[in-house]
Design brief:
six-stranded mixed sheet, outer membrane lipoprotein receptor (LolB), chain A, 6 helices, eleven-stranded antiparallel sheet, Glutaredoxin
Length: 335
Amino acid sequence: MKAAKSLVVLAVLVAGCSVAPTGTPSPTSSAGSVSAAPIVRVKYEMRLNGKQLSSQEFVTDGVRTRSSYVVPDGKREKTWFTVADGVTEATCEPNGCRRGPDERPSLPGSPQFERSCPQAKQTSTGELLGRPTTVWSCAGTGSQLSDVVRDAEFPFIVLSATPANGFPPLSATSFEAGVTVPPDYFSLDGPDVTFIAAKPATVTPLKPGQPGTVMPKLGGGELRLTDYTKGPAILVLGDQDGVRSGLARMQRVTGGTLPTVIAVADAPGPDSEPAEPFPVPVALDDGTGKLWYELATGQSRPLALFCQAAATTCTAVGVWDLSDAELAAEMAKVG
């Protein structure tokens, strides 16, 4: 399990931690690369005392990505893969796939890179697998990594990363540029991508006067959530990055517009940087947000409550558990 978690750290660093991808997405069924960069394939291993703990294969054209993972688990192997088209990422395990935001490559100097490698500083240049590299150290509090080695020609490619928890580094074992892949290799409609069906729940929202119905508003003042649950409105709940990705997806499926929407997001910590603007009013979770999540136990986050006009109940479902068409249909019911 530790190997799996360390693999995920590298995957997050390679893919980034962006909150809501911007720009024009590549079609999920398009063939070939949609960027000027050639398709690159990198293979990684984590080894300890000569024993392989995990392996990863990462393929990208600079916009779309596909990664596969293998982690020994006793006498068996835990395997999964991800595929992303520039907007949406599917994480696929043997029981099916789940959607999430496509997290773009986090380049040095970006907020995403700073989260994984606080106070990053380039310390030197070097070479790995015959590739020129830049070497970065991470020194900030809470750093997931102690150092990172990036490809100099393709800076969005990490060739080596050492976890800060003392676990052995993940290092590239091969690098190929200009590889050819099948037309549907990066497609979310590919034959090996089967999404787990969403299971929306009908919930009765909290009543006025109950804990969790009034929270401090980002920017000052208060938000009375029950003014919105009587409909028509949508509540989106999650951490700040999750809320941003959920709202961005809602805007995409509706052509850039939103109905009446408010959000409940985790309050920033005392050392957090000033929050970026949100496109909707945001209540800061004062600890009572859990009461809303308890209404929809088992639903993923960011969680959306779709409350139609004059309704006494709302439909609760994870924003990313719905297909684009399903999400648009739920939003249309709210109006």
